[in-house]
Hints:
Layout lengths: L15 H9 L13 E4 L8 E4 L4 E2 L1 H12 L14 H10 L7 E5 L4 H12 L3 E4 L6 H11 L3 E5 L2 E3 L2 E3 L1 H14 L6 E5 L24 E3 H6 L10 E2 L3 E7 L7 E6 H15 L7 E4 L6 H13 L3 E3 L12 H9 L3 E4 L1 H8 L14 E4 L6 H11 L6 E3 L34 E4 L10 E7 L9 E2 L3 H8 L7 E9 L5 E6 L3 E4 L2 E4 H9 L4 E11 L3 E10 L7 H14 L8 E4 L13 H8 L15 H8 L7
Parallel strand pairs: 4-5, 4-6, 5-12, 6-9, 9-10, 14-15, 14-16, 16-17, 17-18, 27-28
Antiparallel strand pairs: 1-2, 3-11, 7-8, 12-13, 13-21, 19-20, 20-22, 22-23, 24-25, 26-27
Helix pairs in contact: 3-4, 5-6, 8-9, 11-12
Bound molecules: adenosine monophosphate.
Amino acid sequence: MCKLMRLPLIALTSCPAEFWGDVAKDFFWKTKHTGQFLDYNFDVTKGEIYIKCMEGASTNICYNLLDRNVHEKKLADKVAFFWSVCVCVCVCVCVCVCVKKGDRVSIYMPMVVELVVAMLACVRIGAVHSIVFAGFSAESLCERIVDSQCCLLITADGFYRGDKLINLKLLADEALQKCRDKGFPVGRCIMLKHLSKEPEGILGSQSPPVPWNPEVDLCWDALLRGVSDECEPEWCDSEDPLFILYTSGSTGKPKGVLHTVSGYMLYTATTFKVVFDHQPDDVYWCTADIGWITGHSYITYGPLANGATSVLFEGLPTHPDVSRMWEIVDKYNVTKFYTAPTAIRLLMKFGNEPVYKRSSLKVLGTVGEPINPEAWQWYYNVVGEKRCPIVDTFWQTETGGHVLTPLPAATPMKPGSATLPFFGVVPAILNESGEELEGPSEGYLVFKQPWPGVMRTIYGSHERFESTYFKKFPGYYVTGDGCRRDKDGYFWVTGRIDDMLNVSGHLLSTAEVESALVEHEAVAEAAVVGRPHPVKGESLYCFVTLNDGVMYNSELEVELKKQVREKIGAIATPDYIQNAPGLPKTRSGKIMRRLLRKIACDERELGDISTLADSTVVEQLFQNRCCTAV
Ligand code: AMP
C-alpha cells in the first residue's frame, strides 16, 4: 500500500517554496529564516551562481536526527541501526582534540556504526566531515585531506573485505606522512579498534601489528572512556557547510562537492520518505558504502531524519556465499531494499536458486548507473516476486538526493527508465547548441532550477563549480549525462557524455587513471576508455605508449596495475592494458578517444576518420587488441 496521499501534493513546479516550507515545519529551528525560502541564480551571464535555502534560519542536523526523534517523536526505544549509537560521547572527544565549528574532519573508516557516530559528532558541533571511501589509496586520502585542509583524521585499525585483510591504519599513516611531505601536518589521528576489541591494547592478540605514533595517534575507545555523555548542539545557519564529499572530475583532480545544512536535510528526509514510501515499522537496507553519496543521504541522513530502522552492512554480497543478501533480508525482515545494478548483475549470474526467502520485501530500489532491462526484469520477477515496485533513482553526488525517480506504486514503471522528476525538480533536454528539445528527444540532461538539496559549490573553487556545471549552457545545471525522453515524457539516462567512466556504479575520471599510468617511468602517454562489462557496467581499457627503448612485458603490466591501485585505489584497477606504439590523434594532436572505444570493443565501423593524422595506427591497434582481462 502506498500512503503518499498524506503529503502536501501541491502544484510543485510553480510553487516549490510552499511545498518545502510545509516540509520544514516538521523540523526543529532555533531561529526562523529571514530571506526567501529558496533564492538562487542559475545563469552565469547574470552574475555569480548561488543557491540559498532558508538563509538566516539556524538549526542543527544532528539535533533533528537524534534529539528531535527521541524527545518529540518518542522514538528513544526504536532501533536506528542494529547497533547502538553514542554520539554525544564522541562529540566530546572531538571537542577534546580541539575541533571547532567550521573545521574539516577527514573520516576514513569501514562500514561500522562508529562511522555514523563520527559523522553525527562532527555535525553536532558544526564541523564539516569529509569522508573518504576506505577502498581509496593513501595517495587519494592525502590529496583529499590537503584539499579540504582537515585538522583531524578518524580511522580504524583495519577490516576484512571478504577474506582479505585491509590494514587501514597503515594506509592512513602513509597518507599522513604524504601530507607532512606536502607541508600540511594533520594535528591528530583517532583510531577505532575494529579488528580487535581485546583489552590488551592496540596490539590485540588477533589483530595485525598497528603502527602507533603517540604524538599524533589517539585511541577511540580510550578517549571515549574519559568524557561526559552530554553535549549541546552547535546551532548552525541553514547555509553553513555540512559536509564535503569528493567526486571524480574530468580534469583528473577530484572535486570537493559541498553540501549545506538545511536544504540537504529537508531534501534527503523527504526523498527518503516518499521514494521508499517509508512507514514506521519498516526495516530498510541500503547496501552502499557510506563513503559514497548514497551512503551519506540514504544510510545516514535521510533514514535517521525519519526515525527509520536500518541494517548496516559490512561485507560483500557474495561472501561467504551468494545467498548472503537474502539471508540478511530474511533475518531482519527487511521491507525496503536499495542496491546498485552492478550488485544485481553479479547476483543474477548465479541464477535464481540462491535467492533465499524474502517475503518481507515491499519496495526495491536501484542507483548508480543505468540498469539494463534484463537486470531490471530479474530484480522485479525473481527478487521482488513481481509484487515489489522498483524505484530506479537517478541522482548524483552533486544533486544530494534523488532527482529523477518513480514513486512506488504510483508511477507506472518502465524497465531501465528513472521515469519522472521528483517534486520541484525541473529537467530539460538540450541539443549541442543549447536549445531545449520538446517531446521525444535525446541530448544533454540539465536542470532548470535548484531544489533544496543541490550542492552549493566545489570546496575551495567556486570558479570550477561554475565552469563545470553552469558554463556550457547558461541558465542550466548540466549533469554531464546524456538522456532520452520518450513519448510519455519518461527520462532514460544513457550514461556519461564527459570523460568519465562508471565502474560498478562509481564514477572514475579517465584523466585521473591516465595520469597515474603516466607517472610510471616506462610510460610516455596513456589513454583510457570504457569497455562494456556484464557485471561492472564498464571496465577500464588502458592504452599505453612506452618510452623509447622500453619493452612491454607481463611484469610491466603487473607494475602498471599496481601503480594505478596505489595512486587511486582498487576500484580503478585496469581491466585491460594494451601496448600502443602510437595513439590515434587528430592533426591538431588531440587523442581520438571515440576510435579507442571502437578498438576496445572491436567495432570496425569507425565513422568519419577524416581528421585522423595517421590511419595506420588504428589498424595496428586493432591487430594487437586485448581480448582477455589482465
Ligand atoms: P555519483 O556522483 O558517483 O553518485 O555518480 C552519479 C552518476 O551515476 C550520474 O551522473 C549517472 O551517470 C550515474 N547514475 C546514478 N544513478 C543512475 C540511474 N538510476 N540511472 C542512470 N545513471 C545513474
